[in-house]
Each structure stands twice: as C-alpha cells, then as structure tokens.
Write a structure and sequence with these properties.
By secondary structure, the chain is of the alpha/beta class. 18% of the residues lie in helices and 41% in strands. The protein contains two helices and 34 strands. Strand 3 and strand 4 form a beta hairpin.
C-alpha cells in the first residue's frame, strides 16, 4: 500500500515537471513569436515608408505634368514659363491621403529644387516617406523642356494688302503684289489716276472695282473668296515683376544691364545716351511704365536670347533715336491696354527714328511720321495705323507686316513698304508703294500661340533611388 502511494507521488512530480517544461517552451515560443511579429511590423513599416516616399514623388510629378501645359500656353516664352513653374513648384509640400497602416496615417514631404550647376529646366526631387517613427528617403532628377509654339498666321503668297471693307489707291500709288478685298460695297477697290496693281485683285463682284484714268491691274478674279477671319493674337498678361525704379540716361552716357528680369517705372534716354540689355543666350522679360527715347538716344539688345518689353504706359521715339533688336523676332515690345475705350493711347515714332523690333499694342493707335522707319511686325487692336511724311517700312533684307484687322491703315505720300498689310481699310497716298514680300510669323513671339501648335512643355520621368 505504501509502495502504491509512493508511485502516485512520483507520477505527480513527473506530470508537474512535464507541465512546467511545456509551459516554459510555450512561453519561449510566444515571446519569439511576439518579437518576430514586432520585427515584421517594423520591417513592414519601413517598407511601407519607402512606398509612401515613392508615392509622394508620383503624386507631385503628376501635379507638375497636369500643370505645365497650361503654364506653357499662358507664358509662351521660355523665361516666362520657367519663372512661373519655379514660382509654383520650387518648395516642400506635404502629400497625404495614403491608406492607414496599423492605425497610423502615412505621409510624405516632397521637395523640388533647381539642379545646381545644370542647364535651365533641370530639377531635383526628394521625398521623405513616414509611417510612425519609420522614415525612408528617395530622390532623383527630372527635366522639363519648353517648346515654343509653331503658331503664326496664314498669309496668301504674294499678298500685298488684305482689307475687310475697302482699299483706296490714290494717284500713282502702286501695289507690287496681290490685293484682296472681302467687302462687297460698290467702289470698294478704288484706283486713282495712274495707280497700279502689279498682281491679282481678288474681289467679290465687278462693281467693287472703280478705276481712274490709266489705272492698271494685271488681273481681276471675281467670286467667293476663301479668306481667313483674321483675329488678333491673345495679348499676354502683364508679368508679375515689380516696376518701382526710374532710369534716366543722358549726355553721351552708356549703361549696360545684365540679367534675365528687370522692372522700371519710367525709362528715359536722351542726347546720345545708349542703354544696352545684355541677354547672353537667355530669354529676358522687362517691365516698364513709360519708355521715352529722344535726341539720338539708343536702346540696344545684345545676345541671342529673346527680349520681351512690357509697357503699361506709353512709348515715344523721336529725333534720330533708335530701338535696335538684332533681329525683329529677338525684341518684342508689348504695349498694354490704355483703359480708355473712346480715347485710346497714341504711340508715335517721328523725326528719323528707327525701330527694328516687333510691336504689339493692345488698343493703341500708332503713327510713323517724318522719315521714321520700322522693320518688323506691327500688331495693334487699335483703330488707326499711319505712315506719313516719308515714313517707311522699306528694308529689302527683311519684311514688315502691319497686322491691324480693326484699323484703318494709311500709307501716305511717297511711303514705301516691303511686306504685307492686314486691315479693316487701307489707303495708299500719292506715290506710295507696297511691295509684297513673304512674312514669316511662325517664329515670331507675338504669333507663337497662333493658329497652329501652341507652346507646350515636355517632362521626363525621374530616375528614383533611395538615399
């Protein structure tokens, strides 16, 4: 009996020992599993932070891709495009909206910066993804390439004058090229004594042509005309450049200005003063209120970059003064709205002044007088463009376009123009001569957002790597 009781005691000890061993084993396994799960959570959080960092890059790059086309179309020039892009995107922004991970909300801080020492359009992107205390960082480079529009307008080959309502040729006036009149009023094409059209007159009906004594026209084509509805290009918005300082140069002094952006209140050049904007190979935007050049003053452009001058006030050029762009497409002067519908701004070029540039006046009337001359493109939404007292657009090396679809264009006595005129009405004074010459508007900034492809931008995908 005593032996039996001893055997039961041994069995109890063995059971307790077995239970203890099993409990310790299970506790160890549970601890290991807990540590493994914690390690797995950490690894998942770390990997998740990496994916969040990548997701931040993808979100911001999509935002850029969605925006750059609108910026390109609104700015039209490379300098304007990159300035606006950098104003909007050179910064650090928080990207959230990711799904929660273990109850925590992931997010990323994404920074865009200019690539140091790299050409224009090269940028860096860095994204720090965070989940809880875990962080991962990725970075890469991308490029944005701005492409100017291939706009322009369609001008019929050989066209000297297009008028919507009326063309008047006074005595001995000559058009060396075609005349196109879309209006159908009787006598709409009026030819004075000894006037000539050395080309084709396109009219709606026979009654339109009224010929004076010995007036000559090589050919008349009557019938329905297929003529574009010539519209004004979109006038650009004023650049956001402060214009607070005045600049006056006079008395044989010369000043050189470097840089890609500048703002002035009033600029005055007089008495042989010379102001040179040195652009290098970069496009430049300059804002002024008034520009007044007189008494042999000179405004020059050096460099291969394109220069846009935006005037909020007036422009005056007199007494042997010069505005000189190397090529007409390299210097464009925009003259902003006058804000006076019934009394628009008057822009005058007089007394042997010379302009080699493209001009676009929102609503101003323009006059060239007293031997003033222009080589380039003149666009206005105003009601009048006048060439008087031997003023000319007479460079045989380059052509001039007078594009004023709302205006009466008067080319008065003895004036000479090589190029084309688009107008509401055109009058050629005694002995005035228009010689048709092809005008290339495709690479002119005024028409770069014209009837064909607008300006646009292309972006490369960043090659993302972990930092």
């Amino acid at each position: 009996m005593r032996q039996y009781l001893n055997d039961k005691g041994y069995a109890l000890v063995l059971v307790l020992l077995f239970v203890t061993i099993i409990s310790l084993t299970m506790a160890g396994l549970s601890l290991k599993m807990t540590n493994d799960l914690k390690q797995t959570d950490k690894e998942q959080d770390s990997q998740g932070a990496y994916y969040v960092a990548e997701g931040g890059v993808a979100d911001v790059m999509q935002m850029i891709s969605d925006r750059i086309e609108d910026i390109a179309e609104s700015q039209k020039s490379a300098s304007g495009f990159y300035n606006q892009f950098e104003k909007e995107f050179i910064k650090t922004q928080k990207v959230d909206g990711f799904s929660k991970n273990n109850g925590e909300s992931p997010f990323a801080y994404v920074t865009i910066s200019k690539a140091v020492g790299s050409p224009q359009g090269q940028y860096q992107i860095e994204s720090i993804g965070e989940i809880g205390s875990r962080k991962r960082t990725v970075a890469g480079a991308f490029k944005i390439e701005f492409k100017e529009g291939s706009g322009g307008i369609t001008l019929p080959p050989g066209m000297g004058i297009y008028a919507k309502q009326k063309i008047d040729l006074n005595n001995n006036a000559v058009i060396n090229g075609d005349a196109i009149l879309s209006g159908n009023i009787s006598g709409g094409l009026s030819m004075g004594n000894n006037s000539e059209i050395n080309g084709t007159a396109y009219v709606q009906s026979d009654k339109v042509v009224d010929r004076g004594n010995k007036a000559k026209v090589q050919k008349v084509i009557v019938g329905n005309l297929s003529v574009p509805d010539y519209q004004l290009p979109v006038f650009p918005a004023k650049p956001n450049i402060p214009a607070t300082k005045n600049l006056t140069i006079s008395g044989n002094k010369t000043e050189l200005i470097n840089g890609d952006l500048a703002g002035y209140n009033n600029v005055k050049l007089e008495n042989n003063a010379v102001l040179t904007f040195n652009t290098g190979n970069q496009d430049t935007t300059i804002v002024m209120n008034d520009l007044d050049i007189s008494n042999s003053g000179v405004l020059k452009i050096n460099g291969t970059g394109k220069v846009s001058i935006y005037l909020t006030g007036g422009l005056s050029l007199n007494n042997n003064s010069v505005i000189e762009g190397k090529q007409t497409k390299n210097l464009t002067i925009y003259i902003g709205p006058s804000g006076r519908k019934n009394n628009p701004r008057e822009i005058k070029f007089g007394n042997n002044s010379i302009v080699t540039a493209s001009l676009y006046a929102s609503d101003a009337n323009i006059e060239f007088s007293n031997n003033a001359s222009i080589v380039g493109v003149v666009v206005t939404g105003g009601k009048s463009v006048r060439f008087s007292n031997n003023s000319t657009a007479d460079s045989q090396d380059q052509s001039t376009l007078i594009y004023a679809p709302k205006a009466v264009v008067e080319v008065n006595n003895n004036a000479v123009l090589y190029g084309s005129i688009v107008s509401l009405k055109t009058t050629l004074g005694n002995n005035a001569v228009i010689t048709a010459k092809k005008v290339n508007t495709e690479d002119n900034p005024i028409f770069s957002g014209g009837n064909n492809a607008p300006a646009h931008a292309e972006i490369s995908s960043p090659n993302i790597k972990e930092k």
